[in-house]
TrEMBL record:
Species of origin: Labrys monachus
InterPro entries the UniProt entry points to: Beta-lactam-related, Beta-lactam/transpept-like, Diverse_Enzym_Activities
Domain Beta-lactamase-related: 10-378
Superkingdom classification of source: Bacteria
PANTHER family referenced in this protein's UniProt entry, alphabetically: BETA-LACTAMASE FAMILY PROTEIN (AFU_ORTHOLOGUE AFUA_5G07500), BETA-LACTAMASE-RELATED
Name the record gives this protein: CubicO group peptidase (Beta-lactamase class C family)
Matching Pfam families: Beta-lactamase
């Protein structure tokens, strides 16, 4: 049953498009029973002017992470891997990790053995020590000075990075879930795309979600736009490698807002697909949504590459935790989200939330760099607030 005022929600989403603050947006909200709202406004590309639509294919970027984590947790359920065993048993390249302790006077990286083994739990919670060049200056320098390819190139050597911290000691946002994708492949004997398609996408009807954008989907794909310091927007040539040496589990998927809402509904329904198929066991969904990092704080991002990301703190002043693999707000949030809800985002300003207490979730998806765009974040907050207000009125 629709609970939102469609006209009011349409107006809310259309306003920043008409003001030329964003090129286009797709937004959806859902509860356990189905979609409560869906809308698409603006254009897929400023260069072409093709209208945004509900079936527009967008780059999920790091919204990929939750999907890959779900695949890994299916294998945990099957007893194929334990959360706290050394992952070097499965991925020999991670058996003896090295920590980057800076650089000597000549610029040579200072490496030492990690204090403890990396586990799947470390990888799923971004406490493995692996970082991203976008948010860690030492990682950025190491990659640049040692010729490590960018992740979007999907070269196996892209993963050849030392740790920025010892496993288990801090939340360091990075390439951990790319390694989780390698775990899924090693245990399943399938490519990451084949595994997720069979065990997640098909059961949920996520028919437009994939790493490789085939021609029919390419015709519906939105372009990425770069926002310049003066606020103007430019269409840019941006695509994850379509001839990958590895599937980028941390951010390589493309798909539609409707596909992602199908995933959110599965999580709201305790792991069940619409036809009743168990994608995950209820206890696994519960586990994924609990704090898995103890006293460590998570979620606040301070970039070193401002062209790609802005400073971002989704819940200022609030203790934030991480599950397997979601950001968790520990108190009720101002827009109506319950404490203990799950969320994350994608680099091109795509955002989702899953409120398992109120059984409500949603996505707001654009294709704009840098991440943490204030205009998109305002829209995301207003959209969420409107959904919760309507839910309260319907109660």
């Amino acid at each position: 049953m629709t609970i939102v005022d469609v006209q009011a929600m349409d107006s809310l989403l259309r306003e920043p498009v008409d003001a030329k603050e964003i090129p286009g947006v797709v937004a959806m909200a859902a509860d356990r029973g189905g979609r409560l709202y869906e809308g698409a406004f603006g254009v897929r590309s400023l260069a072409t002017g093709v209208p945004m639509s509900l079936d527009t294919v967008l780059w999920y970027a790091s919204m990929t992470k939750a999907l890959v984590a779900t695949g890994a947790m299916q294998l945990v359920e099957q007893g194929r891997v334990a959360l706290d065993e050394p992952i070097g048993r499965i991925i020999p390249a991670l058996a003896a990790p090295q920590v980057l302790d800076g650089f000597d006077a000549a610029g040579k990286p200072l490496l030492r053995p990690a204090k403890r083994p990396i586990t799947l739990r470390h990888l799923l919670t971004h406490t493995s020590g692996f970082g991203y060049d976008i948010w860690n200056a030492s990682v950025e320098r190491y990659m640049r000075e040692n010729g490590v390819p960018l992740l979007v190139d999907c070269k196996l050597s892209s993963l050849g990075q030392p740790l920025a911290a010892d496993p288990g000691e801090k939340w360091e946002y990075g390439i951990s879930i790319d390694w989780v994708g390698q775990v899924v492949e090693a245990l399943s004997g399938q490519s990451l795309e084949a595994y997720l398609t069979e065990h997640l996408f098909k059961p949920l009807g996520m028919n437009d979600t994939a790493f490789i954008v085939h021609p029919e989907r390419r015709a519906r794909r939105a372009d990425v736009h770069q926002r310049h310091p003066d606020g103007s927007l430019e269409t840019i040539d941006h695509e994850i490698s379509q001839e990958p040496e590895f599937f980028m589990g941390g951010g390589g998927l493309y798909g539609t807002a409707g596909d992602y809402i199908a995933y959110i509904r599965m999580m709201l329904n305790d792991g069940r697909a619409p036809d009743g198929t168990a994608v995950l066991q209820p206890e696994t969904v519960d586990l994924m949504g609990r704090n898995a990092i103890g006293d460590i704080e998570a979620g606040v991002l301070r970039p070193v590459l401002p062209k790609l990301a802005n400073d971002t703190d989704f819940f200022p002043g609030m203790s934030q935790k991480w599950g397997l693999s979601f950001l968790i707000n520990t108190a009720d949030a101002p827009n109506g989200r319950s404490a203990g809800s799950l969320t994350w985002a994608g680099l091109a300003n795509c955002y989702f939330w899953i409120d398992r207490t109120k059984r409500l979730g949603g996505v707001v998806m654009t294709q704009i760099l840098p991440f943490g765009d204030p205009r998109v974040l305002r829209l995301y907050g207003a959209f969420e607030q409107q959904v919760y207000r309507r839910l309260a009125k319907a109660a």
